[in-house]
Structures are given as structure tokens and as C-alpha cells.
Amino acid sequence: MLSPTYPIRTARLLLRPMTGDDVEPMLRYKSLPDVVRYVPYGPLSREDIAERITTRWGRTELTEPGQGMTLAIEEQGTGRLVGDVVLFWHSAENRSGEVGYILAPDAMGLGYATEAAEMMLRLAFEELGLHRVVARLDERNAASARLAERLGMRREARMVDEEWCKDEWCTMLIYALLEDEWRAANAV
Known about the structure:
With about 190 residues, the protein is α+β, with helices and mostly antiparallel strands. The chain has a domain at about 10-135: Gcn5-related N-acetyltransferase (GNAT) (Aminopeptidase), CATH 3.40.630. It contains five helices and eight strands, in the order ββααβββαβαββα. It has helices at about 25-30, 45-55, 110-125, 140-150, 180-185; strands spanning about 10, 15, 70-75, 80-90, 95-105, 130-140, 155-165, 170-180. It has an eight-stranded mixed β-sheet, with helices on both faces. Helix 1 packs across helix 2. The radius of gyration is 16 Å and the shape is globular.
């Protein structure tokens, strides 16, 4: 089980549960086709975002496999919402999970996604006790692949035409990181 104390602080960010106040800031990036190009949903409306915050994105803890926890990424000091990050708990038996991230265009290139995803990996390995965390991404998303590599993840697979998404077959890349690799890279 994972039940963090919020907000979760990083050097520059706060990771926190989403609220109704996040609808408008999220609309600014989740409604843009280029931003959501490589995620499994199309541009979202205000109503879509509000509904997802109260259902899928509203979870504040992981109590059983099959759940996902999506957190808002907020700049410390300014309070500006710059994106969101997700941790999925796939299996208790295999101690496996998945991490994902999406940022507003004006927050890209600042290291925020790396900083937020690193914290989610810490939660996955140190708090939830996962053994293996993956990142699944469309192979055309070169920026996301570079981010996975910065996180210390290794590319393990290229799944040709694995998913039918947005009216086309998508080739997916699988990046992974093991608990012992995480601990070795983050030893004090």
C-alpha cells in the first residue's frame, strides 16, 4: 500500500492530488493535440478533465494492484500547475508498476518531468516496495525516451504495431528499471 503525505516536495516542485481548481490550468495543455499526441486519449475538454479528476485522477493512495495514482505537478513558490505524473501498480505478486508523465509546453525542457518522475520512482521502490517499474511510450516520442534514459531506465523492447491508438498502429518502446538498480544509483 502507498499512502503518501501531501504535498510531496522535490527540489523545485510539489506533487499533490488534483482538485477542481486544476481544471482550467490542465485544459491549457491537455486540450492541445501536440501535447497529447502520444498518450492514449485525445485532446480533452473542460468537462472531460473535471470528470477524470473526480474519477480516475482523484486517487490519493494505492491500496491494491490495478490502481493508478495521478498527481499534479506544481512549481513551488509560484503555485503554477505545470503537468502531471502517474504511478500504476500492476501486480503485487510480481511487484511491478509503471510510471508516466505529461507536461505543459511552457514547462518542457526545464527538468520538471525528470524531477517529478524520479520522485514517483522513489515512491514505487521505497514506499510501495515494487521490484520493477516500466515506462511504455510511442517510439516517435523521442523526448520521452530521453527522459526514461535520464531516469536510469534501459530500453528493453520495441513492440512493433502493438497498439491501435488514434486511428493508427503504434510501435511501443518499453523502458524498465529494477529496484536494485534504483537503490545502487541512489545510494547515499
